[in-house]
Write a structure and sequence with these properties.
It is built from 17 helices and 13 strands. By secondary structure, the protein is of the alpha/beta class. The protein has 3 domains: about 230 residues, Rossmann fold; about 110 residues, Rossmann fold, CATH 3.40.50.1100; about 30 residues, no CATH class. The chain has a 6-stranded mixed β-sheet with strand order 4-5-13-10-11-12, with helices on both faces. A 4-stranded parallel β-sheet has the order 8-7-6-9. Helix 6 links the parallel strand 6 and strand 7. Helix 6 runs parallel beside helix 7, helix 9 packs across helix 11 and helix 10 packs across helix 11.
Length: about 500
Amino acid sequence: MKISEFPEDLRPHLIPEPTGRLVYRCLECGREYGIDELLYTCPNCRGLFLLVDLHEDRLKEQPGSFWRRLFDYRKLLNVPALKGIFLYYELIAPVIPLTHIVYLGEGHTPQVAANADLAGTVGRAFAFKNDGQNPSASFKDRGMAPALSYLNFLASQPGAGKILAICASTGDTSAAAALYSSYLGDKIASAVLLPHGKVTPQQLAQPLGAGARVLEIPGVFDDCMKVVEALADGYQVALLNSKNSWRIRGQESYAYEVAQWFDYETAGKAVVVPIGNAGNITAVMQGFLRFHDLGLIDTLPRIVGVQSRHANPVFRYYAEPDRGRRVFVPVAVTPSVAQAAMIGNPVSMPRVIRLADEYTRRAGEAAVAVVEVSEQEIMDAMLLANRHGHIACTQGGESLAGLMAAVRAAIIDRDEYAVLDATAHHLKFVGFQQMYFDDAFPPEFEVTPKPEYQNRPQLITPKTDKPEEKTGDLAGQIARLLGLTPRPR
């Protein structure tokens, strides 16, 4: 659609110029730092940052109705730098020139409603938002797009030189980081640290295929994270884990898209999110809060975080009803099919606490809840969803299991509509599905397959050696097996 065809009052705002003033603000001591440095924790107190626009009040000069119309009409533009998550440019990357935006097709993933059978089984109407349909097949692309756009902008400055981007990962982060880094060619070198033997072959193939330097170390994700944090503290590298505030900014787009899907009517809605490293639930809460600040939405939807019993520090923290007695204690994780959940010390926990407090202050104590599910429930829920037309990964199964746990606990009202985060594509986790079908889970996973969910191919062989009769013989066998009715003659 040509700009001349848009409403006249919106035309000057469709293609934005860089504005605003972004700073890193420490959640602990409140100090602020310029974004021209590669910083991830406060040099003063080691606290986590939030990326804050000191001039964001300028956005409030326009009413929420203006922003709703702008974001809705901007969908019709054929400008790559304003597609996907960058549709919300003013909220995500207002200081990055459009010429440096890296857009690979991320964002605006579909929201697929559960059919009547599945909704009836669960006891609530709901939909999966399929973030596995992002370019690298996971939600991590949402944060990686602005993080690499920012590095692209930094690399263009005189004397910047080549930048090394590094991350720890259980699979999805490394795939996204390697993909977006490779798009920038010689400007950015990419290295990823993975826990040896704890990443699916499909996920390992992605950073290798994108040309990243892949390094494996013994242990779990938390061990990898300690190493990359040490590297980011001691060397000039760009850290691409969720400590990176640009990552959180990009992942806020999930909340923006959910609101826009419902025409900004978020009353009576609940969003169910796997917690993992806690960056995603942080971003979702912050996204809804910012839309609320600008008047795009009037009501904050309920947020339900989900953790596996095999990695549940956030659930344990909020299980203490007395705020004054809550103490965050990291846990030692045990194997989980939801591999992104195998994090016993989520780096974004300080952000979770701060934002959950603000969220509940505005929307009430019941507006944020955390539930716990078993590995058995995760696998069963994933297979249940996918047998009803979805492409949920194990984290999507975790979300569905979390919804069912929330229904049992009466956390979600009967008339609430839930949106479940399927964070990655089902095909990344087919190994766990095959283990379920083959009853091959090691005991530590605590998964016993249900026969009704197991599925295997069945070989049909001809019962005749005559070539001219083989086709008819096979067709007859299959017809009898499937109970087909012959056509009337």
